[in-house]
Write a structure and sequence with these properties.
Oligomer: single chain
Radius of gyration: 26 Å
Shape: elongated
Keywords: DNA-binding, Transcription, Transcription regulation
Largest sheet: 5 strands, mixed
Number of helices: 16
Order of helices and strands: HHEHHEEEHHEHHHHHHHHHH
Protein name: HTH-type transcriptional activator RhaR
CATH architecture of the largest domain: 2-Layer Sandwich
InterPro entries: Homeodomain-like_sf, HTH_AraC, HTH_AraC-typ_CS, PocR_dom
Distance between the termini: 39 Å
CATH topology of the largest domain: Beta-Lactamase
Pfam family, one: HTH_18
Structural class: alpha+beta
Number of strands: 5
CATH class of the largest domain: Alpha Beta
Number of domains: 3
């Protein structure tokens, strides 16, 4: 999973999020903390239990708590789902990853409770701590707080975890969509684009999630079209069956294209599409798309001062490194060198 290009602190209002986090903590009986993709807390700890406060303030025991947090976050990302585990004191804790479009944004660390069922063999103790006199003395001093830890059944824990996962994902996803749409709209307002067709979408009061996504795609495509004022002429196929695919490709320069999707658009099988596409263009589908995108990239490098990573994003490359590698494959030099040569 690639590192997030989003920042939780920039996406959501953390003060409002902390109030919600406090309420969720009361409802679920769990202590809750939100961290970013680096594991750094971005909120205060909502209702940290006295026992855990005492343990985390102990210089000998707190490193084990930190190891639990770090390893649990990694395990949650690896499994791509919430990870329920036992801490070094056999207390139930949970790492709930916030993952949007395969991007890991951070995690909700929750728990500090005990199971009503005595059998916890199905759970892993993620960090073991060798017993010693000092640890035993600390535990005895905090035993009353330990006994006062909230108690839930395993079923109640899983339901609370699902609530936290669904709610956090929804809120962050909506915040990203809103932010992206506003940013695109601002860019359109400062660009010479006719957005009358898209404006109707803004006037509707019942915009759905799919409409917002569609609007984003339209605005992104419009921005690319404006930048490519001297763009290559659209490929006109001698085979009418393929033309819907070419029309779509040239109208959605900011997207990734799959052979299977284009074949479906043309109402033919992928194998037949591949065969007639190669016959029509003289190249297989993936090579044709890559070469075409590099041609568009060259125009953007020549006509705009957009950073290399922005050009990569505008043309739908999965990451900047892959874009540079592809560009060099066709042009035998990097995008930065190409731009410098063109400008000089």
């Amino acid at each position: 999973m690639s590192k997030s290009r989003f920042n939780l602190e920039e996406i959501i209002d953390l003060k409002k999020w902390e109030k919600l986090q406090d309420s969720l903590s009361l409802v679920t009986k769990m202590a809750i903390l939100t961290v970013d993709y680096k594991g750094v807390p971005v909120t205060k700890h909502s209702f940290c239990q006295p026992f855990c406060q005492g343990v985390r303030q102990d210089s000998n025991l707190s490193p084990y708590c930190q190891k639990c947090d770090a390893r649990a976050g990694i395990e949650a990302v690896r499994q791509n789902k919430p990870y329920i585990y036992l801490c070094h004191f056999n207390i139930i804790d949970i790492a709930i990853p916030i993952i949007i479009d395969d991007q890991y944004l951070g995690a909700i660390m929750a728990g500090q409770l005990k199971l009503r069922e005595p059998d916890v063999s199905q759970l892993e103790q993620i960090v073991s701590r060798p017993p010693n006199v000092e640890s035993n003395m600390k535990f005895q001093a905090l035993k009353e707080d330990y006994e006062a830890l909230p108690v839930l059944s395993y079923d109640e824990v899983t339901k609370c975890v699902d609530l936290l996962l669904q709610l956090s994902t929804y809120i962050v996803e909506e915040a990203i969509q809103k932010r992206t749409t506003v940013d695109l709209y601002k860019r359109v307002l400062t660009t010479d684009i006719d957005i009358s067709a898209s404006a109707e979408l803004f006037e509707e009061t019942d915009l759905t999630y799919r409409k917002i996504q569609s609007l984003q795609q339209e605005l992104s495509g419009a921005l690319i079209e404006t930048k490519l004022k001297n763009g290559a002429q659209k490929f006109v196929s001698s085979n009418a069956v393929l033309q819907p695919a070419f029309d779509y490709i040239y109208a959605h320069k900011n997207e990734n294209f799959s052979l299977k999707e284009m074949a479906k658009l043309c109402h033919i099988s992928p194998s037949y599409f591949s065969r007639i596409f190669t016959k029509e263009t003289g190249e297989n589908f993936s090579l044709f798309i890559a070469r075409l995108k590099i041609e568009w990239a060259k125009q953007l490098l020549e006509t705009t001062d957009a950073p290399i990573n922005q050009v990569s994003d505008d043309l739908g490359f999965c990451d900047t490194g892959y874009f540079i590698k592809t560009f060099k494959r066709f042009e035998n030099l990097t995008p930065a060198v190409y731009r410098n040569m063109y400008m000089n």
